[in-house]
Write a structure and sequence with these properties.
By secondary structure, the protein is mainly alpha-helical. The protein folds into two domains: 203 residues, no CATH class; 160 residues. It has eleven helices and no strands. Keywords: Coiled coil.
Length: 438
């Protein structure tokens, strides 16, 4: 496969080519241009100068790439190098014309052109991929060396380190592929041409190369001033370091201002949310105050009912004591009535002869005694009726109190459920508030 190219740098893309291979590649690229019927030679040469491989090195910085290209393709001090021996004449030393004709006839020229162009395109693509990987690796490596790198989170540091390792590995792989492609490209001996047009093509290529070198010399002369200015600027690293530090300071200030604006917006949003939440809390406070006021009224009514219930219990106790006394009086009256009944019965059972001698006192109706005799019976009936009424009143009072207490509990709990939800929401929101502000 040929020797490997160690220490390959991205911008020094074709430095490892030996001079004969480079000139062969340049000659045959221009020959391809001629065979493709490109009529405007000046425009084509201008395109070759500014971008030798259009569409492949479009992302390379022009000054850096052209400077290295001119260093590779600049003519030596002794003048233009002679074109490859295979391009000057078909008569090479040790190779007769007949043998060359037989060789050219036996080789499929189209297949050779396709293979060589494919090899060249693979080298160009490998160079572009390696350059892209190298730039990414350099970008992430420079990011790790910034003084702000220590302020980011550990997760971001791990991510950046993984990117550095990934692009370093990818850069090494692309470097190996590029070295292999360039080795394979340098192993190509010649680029076949049609023998009948070889001298004409060599003459035209020589004139084109002369014009190309002239244009490159002009471009190199125009870029000398830029290169000198760049070198003079690079001689003062302290100024560059100060400029980088001021740039980092400006970036830090810009980031702080952006953070301040972001925090200001967040604080405003939080203030608006607090204002809305305060209004809701005020409404809930009013509703709770109304519920508490209703609770006070209901508590006063309940106290009144309790006081009335106590009074009723006291009155019932008095009536019970009176009923006991009346019951005792009724019992005594029944005993008297029984004794009188027995006496009357005994008197009626005596002989008639004796009955005439017994004097029966006259019976006088007394209203007071009649009332006293009837009063226990009336009181008993009244006691039974009043007891039933009091029991009904007691039951109705208990049912009314239970219904009122149930309604009051339902109303208060429904209002307090909203309050509990609001308090839980505020507690959750206050727990998350320091994290958002931070």
């Amino acid at each position: 496969m040929g020797k490997q190219f160690d220490g390959f740098e991205p911008n020094l893309n074709f430095r490892r080519f030996h001079s004969g291979s480079r000139l062969q590649v340049t000659h045959h690229l221009l020959s391809l241009q001629r065979h493709s019927e490109i009529t405007c030679r000046t425009k084509s040469l201008d395109n070759v100068i500014h971008n030798p491989f259009p569409g492949v090195f479009g992302d390379i910085v022009p000054c850096t790439y052209h400077r290295h290209l001119m260093a590779d393709l600049a003519p030596p001090k002794g003048g233009l190098p002679p074109p490859p021996a295979s391009l000057h004449s078909s008569n090479q030393p040790g190779t007769p014309d007949s043998q060359l004709g037989k060789m050219t006839e036996s080789i499929d020229k189209g297949a050779i052109w396709v293979a060589h162009i494919k090899t060249l395109s693979e080298a160009i693509i490998a160079h572009s991929e390696y350059l892209d990987s190298w730039r990414h690796h350099r970008k992430y490596t420079h990011l790790t060396m910034l003084w702000r790198f220590s302020d980011i989170s550990d997760e971001d540091k791990t991510c950046v380190t993984m990117q550095v390792n990934h692009f370093a590995k990818q850069s090494e792989e692309k470097k190996t592929q590029l070295s292999a492609a360039l080795s394979h490209l340098t192993e190509l001996d010649y680029w076949p041409l049609f023998p009948s047009k070889m001298k004409t093509t060599a003459t035209e290529l020589k004139s084109n190369i002369t014009e190309l070198y002239t244009a490159l010399q002009k471009l190199q002369a125009s870029s000398l001033t830029v290169q000198q200015v760049t070198q003079s600027q690079l001689k003062s690293p302290e100024v560059l370091i100060k400029q980088l530090q001021s740039l980092e300071t400006s970036l830090a200030g810009l980031k702080n201002r952006m953070d301040d604006q972001f925090l200001t917006l967040k604080v405003r949003e939080l203030e608006q949310k607090l204002e809305v939440t305060g209004k809701k809390v005020e409404e809930i406070r009013r509703e709770v105050a109304e519920v508490i006021a209703g609770w006070s009224v209901m508590a006063a009514e309940n106290a009144e009912l309790r006081h009335g219930n106590v009074q009723l219990k006291n009155e019932i106790a008095v009536l019970v004591r009176q009923q006991q006394k009346h019951q005792e009086a009724i019992t005594a009256s029944r005993q008297e009535i029984i004794s009188l009944h027995e006496a009357v019965k005994a008197a009626l059972m005596q002989p008639h002869g004796l009955s005439s001698t017994i004097l029966v006192p006259p019976f006088e109706l007394d209203t007071a005694s009649l009332v006293e005799a009837v009063k226990p019976v009336i009181l008993q009936s009244l006691h039974e009726d009043i007891w039933l009424l009091l029991e009904d009143a007691k039951n109705n009072m208990q049912n009314l109190l239970q219904e009122q207490n149930s309604q009051m509990y339902v109303t208060v709990l429904s209002k307090m459920a909203t309050t509990v939800k609001i308090v839980e929401f505020l507690a959750t929101w206050m727990d998350h508030l320091p994290r958002q502000v931070k």
